[in-house]
Amino acid sequence: MAVVTSKPRTPPTAWQRFKSGNLSDTQLGFLLLTPALLTLALVMFYPIANVLWRSLHFERLNQPQRGTPFIGLEHFREMLWGREMTWDAVNQWPLRLLALLVIGIILWLAVKGNLKRSHAAYWTLTLLAFAFLLGFHPGEEGRWNDRRFWNSFQITWLIIIVSVSGAFLVGLPLALMANIKSRWRWLARIALLVPWVMPRVFVGIVFAWMFNSTQGVINDLLSRVGITGPLWLSREIPAIVVVNLTIIWTTSSFVALILLAGLQSIDESLLEAAHGDGANPWQRFWHIILPLLRPAIAVALIFRTLTAFQTFDIPYALTNGGPGRTLEVLGIYIQRTTSSLDLGYAAALSVMLFLMSLGVTIIYLRWIYRDD
C-alpha cells in the first residue's frame, strides 16, 4: 500500500495574516505602533529632513533667479572654516593643557579600576581629537569665514555652562527644602512653580527694568549705600552676568521640581537604616540620596541643557542681542539670518544647533545608563 506524503504547509505571509486577522505578537505590536510612528514622522522626522535638505542647497528669497541649486556642505565650510587655515601649538594652549590634564586623570582612574577601560579609551581619544583641532585657526593673513557664527557659538556655550550649572546648584537646595516634612512645605512647592510658569519674555522685560542703569531697582539700591552701579545692559561683562542671572532665576525652579520628584521616589527606610547605623546627614546625602538621585539629575540636566541651547527670548528681551553682538546667541543669529532671507544658511545653522544638542544628550544618556 502506497504511503501518500503531504507537502509541508508554507507559513502564511504577513499580508495573509493581516487579511485573516491572525496576527503574530510582533506584527500586532508594529500595527499598534503605526499611529505613533506616523505622528512622529509627521511632526519630527519630516521637519528635520526638510531643514537638512535646505542646508545642502542655496536658497535666498532675495535671489529667486538662482533657484535652489545643490551646493553640498558649502554652508558648513563657510560656517566652520576660515581662510588660510594653519595649525600651531601656541594657539589655545591653555585649553589643550587642560584637556591633557583631564586625560591624565582619566588614565589614573582606569589604572585604579574606578573607570572601565573602554570608557577611558573613548574619552581619551575624544579629548585628544579636541586638543588637536584647537590648533587650527586662520593664519596671520586669514580670518574666520563667519565670525558671527563663532561669536554666537562661544556666547551660547558660555550661557549653557553658567546657567545650567547655576540652575542645578540653586535647584538642588530648593528641592531639598521643599522635601522637608513640614505642614508648610506645600507653600514652598507652589513657590517653585511661579518662576517657571512666567512667560520668558515677560521675565526678560522685568529684569531689564530692574537692571536699568538710570531707573532700575538694582542701581537705586546700590546708590543708597554709596555705590555707583554699572551700566548693566550697555557693557559686555555686566550684560552677560545679567542674562545668566535671569536665566538661572527662571529655570532653577524647573530643576528643583524634577529633583523633588526624584527625592520623593527614594525609600525612606534606606535613610532610616543609615541613620540607625550612625551616618550623619552629610553621609546620608552623599552616599544614599545623591546616587539614587542620579536619574532625576540626568533628566533635569538634559531638559535644562536643551532649553539652554535654544535660548532666544531672554537675551532678546533684555538687550536684543546686544550690546553690539555680545549676546547674539545662535537662536538670535538664526532668526536674523532668516530675516535676511538666506534660508539655506539659516537651515545650516539650525542643523549645527541640532547636532550640538544631540551630542550633549548622548553624553548625558551614556552617563545615566553606564554600567556600574
Shape descriptor reads: globular
Strand order, main sheet: write it out: 1-2
**Proportion of residues in helical segments:** 55-70%
Q: Structural class of the secondary elements?
A: mainly alpha
Written as H for each helix and E for each strand, in order along the chain, the element string is HHHEHHEHHHHHHHHHHH
Biggest sheet layout: 2 strands, antiparallel
Total number of beta strands: 2
Strand % is under 5%
Radius of gyration, CA atoms, in whole angstroms:
27 Å
Distance between the termini: 69 Å
Helical segment count: 16
Runs in which pLDDT lies below 50 for 5 or more consecutive residues are none
Give a quick summary of the entry.
The protein has 372 residues and is mainly α. It contains 16 helices and two strands.
